[in-house]
Design goal:
Length: 378
């Protein structure tokens, strides 16, 4: 179990951290314009798996640019070491244990667990108010485009505050990254179309269609989860870049990262084209640490599925135009649950944000409160 010290980092403190290296160009404009929010969540992307975090093979120029334009966190943690609990935490602002979602859905009983695995919930209950519910109630158009993995059809994104659900199902991964995809909530594209590209196209299309009203886009990528499938030309590019002594050596994984990175670039270009860039918050994160041996999280120990640092420390980049200082780096610990209330507060969606904050205020009275990562199935 990882214990994150140095106090509580809930909504209030993450906002303080973002403002701690503040850079404000136009306060009046920032106060009057309603901000759009795009939350991009990579799947199984490790702490060192981007150029701006020190990879010696993987290239991510668009995400690196996002870091140069915003704030990069070096001690961001996922709420759990596997995907469904972390996703539920982001959606609700609650610890996975509080939701009773403590393993990936549907989970797999360990062969010889050291402790009894508790009974747990294999869907996100409809009674839970999500970040999408809050944005929707606040007058935002909302879309979930990509992996859901929080229950079957009765619990799909459109039941949790999202106007649109594209590609979200109960599945933990795609059967293939090349069309035909056989994803019930995603019409198949032409044969050979690459899934990561397609989802990026869907995000760009949504932004184009909803450009005249505030929007919240949740873009949970399937990449870089199994199966490892990438475009041949990119795979060959990274095979040629490999050499002895590198920390990262997986050329297919590298190619998948580049395709994911390309979607970030296309989204930002569309925002520039529509003149929305200066009023759109973009957050890039990962749901848990990198999977070993698919990648390396060194010097952190182990990876996905482990409560050691390699399984829980993740990249986190926040771009808040006119607020985050370009190129700033923050070493304070933050965790998945912080995103829910923080993004609502940043966008000025006060009502639901205050409900979450009321819980945090009671806890904030405890000095040096620790935050815990709990994975009873390990």
């Amino acid at each position: 179990m990882v214990k994150i010290l140095n106090g509580i980092f809930t909504m209030r403190w993450l906002l303080v951290l973002l403002f701690s290296l503040v850079w404000v160009e136009n306060t009046d404009a920032a106060e009057t314009a309603r901000l759009n929010v795009i939350l991009i969540l990579a799947d199984d992307l490790g702490w060192k798996d981007l150029g701006c975090y020190g990879s010696d093979l993987y290239q991510s120029p668009n995400i690196d640019r996002l870091a140069r334009d915003g704030m990069r966190f070096t001690q961001a943690y996922s709420a759990c070491t596997v995907c469904s609990p972390s996703r539920a935490a982001i959606m609700t602002g609650k610890y996975p244990a509080r939701l009773h979602i403590t393993d990936w859905i549907p989970g797999q009983m360990p062969e010889n667990p050291k402790l009894l695995v508790p009974d747990w919930t294999k869907y996100l209950p409809l009674e839970e108010k999500t970040i999408a519910d809050a944005f929707h109630d606040g007058g935002y158009s909302t879309a979930s485009i990509g992996k859901w993995h929080l229950g079957g059809e009765p619990y799909f994104p459109d039941k949790h505050g999202f106007d649109i659900n594209i590609a979200g199902t109960a599945a933990s991964q795609p059967t293939t990254y090349f069309a035909p995809y056989n994803i019930a909530t995603l019409p198949d594209g032409p044969k050979g179309e690459y899934l990561t590209d397609r989802l990026g196209d869907e995000v760009v299309k949504f932004i184009e269609e909803r450009k005249d009203r505030p929007f919240f886009v949740y873009f949970p990528q399937f990449a870089v989860h199994l199966p490892f499938q990438a475009k041949r030309e990119l795979t060959e590019k990274y095979r040629a870049r490999k050499h002895a002594g590198q920390m990262h050596t997986n050329e297919v994984y590298a190619a998948m990262i580049e395709s994911m990175d390309d979607t970030v670039g296309r989204i930002r270009r569309k925002l520039d084209e529509l003149k929305l860039a200066e009023r759109t918050i973009i957050v890039f994160a990962s749901d848990n640490g990198g999977r070993v041996p698919s990648t390396s999280n060194l010097p952190l120990r182990v990876g996905k599925g482990s409560c050691y640092e390699g399984g829980t420390r993740v990249p986190l980049i926040v771009y808040w135009p006119g607020v985050t200082k370009p190129g700033s780096v923050n070493a304070a610990p933050v965790i998945s649950m912080d995103l829910h209330p923080t993004l609502l507060e940043m966008a000025g969606v006060k009502d639901v944000a205050n409900r979450v904050k009321a819980v945090d205020d009671k806890l904030a009275a405890l000095s040096d409160r620790a935050e815990y990562i709990f994975y009873p199935s390990s």
